Amino acid sequence: MIWNIIDRRICPYRWKNVNAIIEAVEHDNGCADADQAPEASPLEVIDYDKRKDVSVADAIAWANAQRRPVTLFLYDAGKGTTNEEHPNLSECRSCYRGHPISWHVSGGHR
Asked: What is the number of other CB atoms lying within 10 angstroms of the CB of residue 59?
């Protein structure tokens, strides 16, 4: 289920093909001025997942169908799927459990 959406598209009126990333909403807890989400069991958390070249509607439906609260990040098609392009993986905090970013990108808590 979506608890937050961060739209990082340069072209915000393009909706047919975008890249979407989801992260557990509690990852945002370490960001300045963030609402605080309760931490979930490591077995339930969706640390990181992505969909490439989906519509905005499909990205929202996919993120909203998750079993735990997530933050949905939207990017222009072809963007946002690497550490450099998806700075939320490192810009405001490391994982709330202290794992390195590369650990999450490679599969994390799964």
From this structure: 24
Please give the pLDDT value at position 84: 55
Question: Does residue 39 belong to any structural domain of this protein?
Answer: yes
Q: What is the pTM of this model?
A: 0.75
Element (H, E) at 102: helix 101-105
Look at the chain and report how many structural domains it folds into: 1
- DSSP letters spanning 37-86: PPPPPTTT----EEEEEE-HHHHHHHHHTSSS-EEEEEEETT-S-STTT-
Specify whether the backbone of 73 is left (phi greater than 0), alpha (psi in -120 to 50) or beta.
Answer: beta
pLDDT tens for 77-86 read: 999 876 656 6
Task: Establish if 110 belongs to a structural domain.
Answer: no
Distances (CA, A) of 94 to 59, 90, 102: 25, 6, 11
- Identify which of 44, 102, 43 has the alpha carbon closest to the alpha carbon of residue 69: 44
